[in-house]
Each structure stands twice: as C-alpha cells, then as structure tokens.
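Researcher: Can you fold this with magnesium ion in place?
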Amino acid sequence: MNDTLYIVIPCYNEEEVLHETVKRLTAKFDKMIEENSISENSRIMLVNDGSKDRTWEIINELYTSNKYVTGVCLSRNKGHQNALLAGLMTAKEYADMVISMDADLQDDVDAVDKFVEEYKNGAEIVYGVRNSRKKDTFFKKTTALMFYRLMNKLGVDTVYNHADYRLMSKRALNELANFKEVNLFLRGIIPMIGFKTAIVEYERNERFAGESKYPLSKMISFAVEGITSCSVKPLRMITSAGLIVSFLSFIYLIYVIIGFCMGRNIQGWTTTVVLICLFGGAQILCLGIIGEYVGKIYNEVKQRPRFIISEELLK
Ligand code: UDP
Ligand code: MG
C-alpha cells in the first residue's frame, strides 16, 4: 500500500484561483496515483480562513464534484500561519505525509513529485526552496533579503528562501503538535524539530490571479513576530547597549569631575538637551522591545485556542 499524501492549502479570499489550483492538483494526483507513487486515499485539503468572498462556497462545490477535495472552515480569519496549522493538524490524522502550499499557484505544482521522492528516501521534512527571485518586484526582493539576513543575525534558524512550501511526515507533524505556542512562526519552529531533512529547489511563479494577502504592514508584523517568537537576542542587545552607555557615562563623569575641580564654569545647555533627547529616545525604544516580549508572554499564558474549526468536509 502506498503512502497517503495530503496537500493543505490555506485560502483567504481566493475565489479567483481555487478552480485552477484544484484543476492542476487533480491532474497531478491522477498521474501520481497511476504511477503508483501515492495512495488513492490522497486528498487536497482546502482551509477557508474566514474569507469574505465566495471561497467557502467554491470549496463546497469542489468537495461534491472532485473526488480529492476536502475542506476545513475556520470560525473566522486567523491569519495564514494559524490556518495552515489548522489544516496540518487535521490532515495528520489521515495522512502519512502532508505538503503545505499557497492557494495562488506561486508554488510550482511539479515540485510535488520531488518532495515525495525525498520523503521516500527517508526525509521527515522537505523544504521547498525557490531558486530565484527573478519574478519578484525589486521591493519584495530587497525586503525579503533584509528579512532573512536580520533573522539569521538575530539567531533565528530559518532556511534561506524557503516560505511555507514544504512536506512533513506524520512523525514530524506529531512533533509539531507538541509546540503549543500561540505566537506562531512556522518557518522558525519547524527547523527546531530536527530529524532527517531535504531541500527541493523550485521556480516560484507569479500569483495566478487576485492580490497578495500580505501587504507591507502584515509583512512587517510577520517579521517582528518571527524574530520575537524565536529569539531573545534583541533583549541581549539592550543589555549590551546598556553596558556600553554605562561605560561611556563613567568616562564622561570623570571628565566632568576633573573639570569641576579645575574650576571650569557650567556651560553646556546644548549637551544636556542632546543627551536627554538621545537617552529618552533610546529608553523608550528599549522599553518597546521589552514590551514586545511581555506582550508575547501575556498571549502565551492565556493559552487561547489558535484556531476554531466551524465545519469539516472530509471523505
Ligand atoms: N492566507 C490566509 N490567511 C490570511 C492571509 C493569507 O490563509 O489571513 C493565505 C492565502 O490565501 C495564500 C497564502 O496564505 O494561500 C499566502 O498568501 P499570499 O499568496 O497572499 O502571500 P504572498 O505570496 O503575497 O506573500
Ligand atoms: Mg502568494
């Protein structure tokens, strides 16, 4: 008996692309089942993340008309990462391996064969890594590069140029289920799982239709989320900055005392104002960083559910 593959796709207002995505994946499944590389029980799992358009209706239609399509509906919009997690946690009950993919066909469907091949070679996690960013806008390219650099500098172990296109085995998913954090940054957590991993390169396409659901504001908060939920380096940087400033202040203090002993007059209104502003700003910034972590702890201790499933269409 071949292993069962589930492809989990979070969908937020994706009415324009769903038919095409499912069409291509159906062709892929037909071929793979015929070639005996995956089992007939393999499924496409579409997760509706509180869409405001016809996404859920379309998923219902596809569920009745297509033998592979299953659906999960979240009770409201919870964001890409939570929607993905909801799908992964549902799929792992039925699948031997699960691939996560975006709805917009940016992730090359043909890479699925290579993912499965690596899985059969013993990899528990297979990362899809895009081989170029030719099709990205200059802005997206630079901001993404800055993001990866910053993440690595801050000690977050991410796979370069890997988004959320990956395969995970049932075993890896069962381990992922033990990560109970509410502040979810899958790209940072999954490398922590370990096991044997592999990388598959693929060409990333342009979005098939519709608009990106990640505007700049969401991208920035995603980056902050990634850093603060996987690393405490920013806090250490504050400590280091504090040490440096204390040292410099000490030297300045000696200079001031010597000046006082030598009878130098009090001048320096400018110096005082500059220093007050500078340190005032730096202190607020540091408090902000600490606050970010305090906020995270606040969210974690409450242990609220990361998603609520309102409907499931399984077969
Ligand atoms: N998505 C989601 N919930 C959200 C935002 C996005 O489920 O709140 C899904 C979206 O439908 C898509 C995937 O996450 O399948 C990635 O989003 P998108 O393609 O818009 O991001 P980009 O590729 O532009 O970074
Ligand atoms: Mg996309």
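Model: Folded with magnesium ion in place. Residues 10-12, 14, 49, 77, 79-80, 83, 102-104, 106, 212-214 surround uridine-5'-diphosphate (ligand 1) (CB under 6 Å).
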